[in-house]
Every structure is written in C-alpha cells, then in structure tokens.
Design a protein that fits this description.
heterodimer; A: mainly alpha; 21 helices; 80% helix; globular; B: mainly alpha; 7 helices; 81% helix; 0% strand
Chain lengths: 419, 180
Amino acid sequence: MAWGVVALLFAMIGLGMPIGFALMISAAIAMALSGLDLIFVPIQLFSGTNKVILLAIPLFIFMGELMGATSIADRIIGLARALVGWMRGGLAHVNVVTSMFMAEMSGSAVADAAVMSKIFVPSMEKQGYPRSFAAAVTATSATLGIIIPPSIPMVLYGVTTNTSIKDLFLAGIGPGLLLAGAFMLTNLAFATKENHPVDERFEFRRLSEAFRGAIIPLLIPVIVVGGLIGGLVTPTEGAAVGVLAALFFGWVLQRDLNAGKVYTLAATTVRQTSVVMMIIAGSAVLGQFLANEQIPQQIANGLGDITDNFILRILLINVFLLFLGMFLHASAAIIVVVPMLLPLSREMGIDPVHFGVMVCLNLGIGQQTPPVASVLLTVCSATGLRIEQVMGYCKWFILAMFVTLMIVSFAPATALWFR
Amino acid sequence: MLFRLLDRLVEGAAVLAFAASSVLICINVVNRYAVLGGLRKLAQSFEWLQPYYISIRNTLGDISVMADEVPGYLLVWVSFLGAYLALRKGGHISFDLIVDSLRPRLRSAVKAINLALISAFLGVMAFQSVRMIRTSGRTEIETAEIAQGWFMLILPIAAVLLFLALVRAQIKTHDTSAEP
C-alpha cells in the first residue's frame, strides 16, 4: 500500500494540486486505510511546523526583502563594476559578481533573479549584449543564492536530515566560488566569440570608493555567517540579528524604509514562508507514514542494487536529483525526497554535509531547466523573453553548472575544506 | 468587501505573530550578550548600576526562557495564517503543466476533483484538530503558563479560513467565466 500512497502523491502533484495539500491528503488517506486514528494528522501538522530552527527561514527571507528594498543593490553593483568591469564582457561579469554578493543576503535564487533581471538586462542590452544572453547570465548566476550562505534550501536540508546548518553554510562557500568562476569563464568565452565590450577601466581609487560605499551592507551577512561559524548564535538567532542589522541600515542609516514599507515586506515574507511551511507540514504527516513503511530504505536498496560501483552510484544519484529538480520545487524536493536518498548516501559513506551541497547544486540546475524552471521563468517573465530564446545561451551556463556539480561530487574537499 | 477585511485581519495577525517571534529571538541574543555579558561586567565595576542590572536581567531572563519555545509555536500561526493569504493570491507551489495542457472540460473536472479533495481534507483537519485541542489543549507549555491549546487553535481556524479562500476563488472563477 505504501507504494500506492507514493503513486497517489505524484498523481495529485501531476494534476496540479498544491504540493503541500497533496502531501497532507495522501498521508490522511494512507492513515485512514491503515486504520490509524486521524487525530495524528493535526498532531503531525502542529509538531512538524512547531520548531524554532525553522524560524530561520522567514527571518532570512525577511532580511533579503529588507535589503532588496534599500539602495544596497546600487552599492553592490558599484563595487562589482569596480572589481571586474574592466574585463572583456565586463557587465556580464559584474552580473555574476553582484549575484555572488547578493547571495550572501537573500538565500533565495528566485528573489535574486527577480531583482537582478530588472537591473541588468536593460543595462546590458544598452551596451550591446543580446537580450537573451543578458537574461541567461542573470538567471543562471542567481543560483549562487542557494549555494553561497545563507541559503534557505540548506536550512531546510539541515532541519530535514539533522545536519549542522553551520557546517552546510561553510561547505557552500567553496562550491559557490567555483560556480561563480565557471560562470565567468563561460562569460569570457562568449565575450571573446561575440566581441562583448569592456564596461569601465580599472581604477584603484574607484574600487576603494565603491568598497567604502558597500562595506556596511556587506558586513551584515558577514556578521550573520561569522556569528554562526563562531558559535556565538544559532541559525535562527543569526538570521534575527541580520534582520535587526538590515533594519538599522535601511531605516536609520539610509532612510529607505519606513513603518509602512516594513509592514508590507513582513506580509510578503509571511506569504512566502507559508508556501514552504505547508510543504514541511505536509511532509511531517506523510514522512512519518513512509518511514514506518520503510520506503526510504526500499528506494535506497533499489538504487543501490543497480550497481555497486561508487562512481556510477554518484552519477545515478545526480541524474535522479537532476530529473527531480526539473519537476519539483527545490523545497519540496529536499523535504520529500532527500530523506529517501539519505540511507543510500550514508551506505556509500558520503558525508551528509557534502551530500547537502550536491543536492543544492542539483536543485539549482533544476531551477534553470523546464518544465518547472522557477528561476528561468522569473527572468523570462521580467524580460518578456520566451524560454526557448533564453535557452540558446542558457544551455552553456547550465553546462558550466553541471561541470561544477561533477567537480564537487567527486572532490568532496571542495565542500569539506574547512574540516 | 468582507473578504478584504478578513484578508487585512489575517495579514495583521500573521505579521504580529512573526514580529513577536522575531522579537523573542532577538531578546534572547540581547540578554545573553548585552545583559549577561556587557551589563553584568559594568555592574560589577559600578555599584549604582547593580539594581538596574538585576531588574533588566530578571525581566529579560523570564522572556528569554520563553524564547526557547514560544517562537516555534508562533511560527505555526505564521505558517497557517500565511497559507490562507498565499491561497488568496494563488501563491502555493503546484505543477500546472499537465493540467494546463488538458481540454477545458477535462481541466475543469480535474480542478473540481482537487477542490473536493482539499475541501474534504480541510473538514477532517477542522474536526480532528478540535479533538486534539479537547484532548491535550489544556497542557501548559514547558516555559510559560500558557495552555498549548491557544497555539493549537490555529489549526481549526486555518481549516475554516482556507475553505473560505477556496470558496471565494470558486465564486471569482464562476463570475469571470459567466461574463459575456
């Protein structure tokens, strides 16, 4: 019957039911058929969402919203231009470096893509870049938001698998830098082939001015992640400190925020949070049932039985996650599917922190690949381009992401350098 | 009109719950480092600060204990009130590719089945969460003299709110399709 429940779940998701409800309903049906008291449905819903650590999710979202509503993007872009604008294809590199800095503040690729596409696509087009190229760079570089700390999918992974969020955040730094490097190399290849322009000459004075302008907003994520790494604060407390610092920066120092704006941003945060929390609530109900039926072990055994070869098994896991990422939202994939794969990764001796980074990279690629492609669709909707137009360039950046994924998968030291 | 008022009420309550939980977390950090760290050292050096230090320590200390538990309970309120707001704006994550490719009549049928299933589930959720509150709602949480039933109350409330949001969405769809 357990497999029937899994099939029912995927059927409901396939037929357009919101994923959170699909999880709750399939669990309730399974419980009813097993003769369990349905009072466990609200009990699991309540206990599944009642966790202080999960408060880090809305707090990181709120921190990103607050930072996005201030003049911070201009300052960060100024710094990125001074740093890499002198290279051939300057503005495309600036796009990547800005996404890298913004990733430290928002933790969400979709949020980064929405902001960046409005800023970069018109300005790159003005400098002569093809619009679809600008959109492709913006969409793919936004993935850095879920690799470089703080990262909401990593918080979810940490909570779901009981892995240290601090370690996950640290592990994201190396692969995040690798990924940014891969994007810049791809930019450089196109810049050479299509003769993209240089943005502005390098001047040390401009760099130091830009750095001074951006130092306070850049310090906020450093304080958050630094406090976490130093063991001074928990992830939830770190996120709360980040919110306080962002409020201080935006409201007191910059005067970009007021009570009305903060309320609106908080309301947006609440809505975005609930979307993830409903999936968490639903999986709390279903997860217990599937664990009792030993479905994760069966999946692990099934995948493990295909081959004994370590390399092939890693490739198999990556293909499975890539395929899944094409259809499922990152949060849903982590909450629902990662517990199923964890027994296999443990059996293979993969460090759970390393596995977490692999999962996030895979799902990051999934955010760029149709049909779901949440980040790519956000950029397409902001730029008015069709997916197939952006895909012409995007596929090369996805290839760069895949190469990075392979490096991180087969060289754990790229993620576990800090141990 | 009524729905707009309800939306504002729910939004206000959700933001309030989010703000309260954030403040509790911040108080925990402030108490640990500013009061038990900085202020305590100052109070050791300057005697006149002692009564202020003790008063602040006791007040924040009591709140700080709650901060280990209450924000989690408030997050349940944030989540389910937010779920209503997200449903009103069509914000919940779903995979619409297959449904959108169906013929209009088949699409309507699939949507009707989804709606019926969600409504039935919300009915079960409302009934069973009332049972849960009657069974264990009087038990107090560990860090404060608050019955956990107050926090559990959000589940039946959310079931009703989500059902209302579904009904409203249906009325809107019907009105739109009825327009010439």
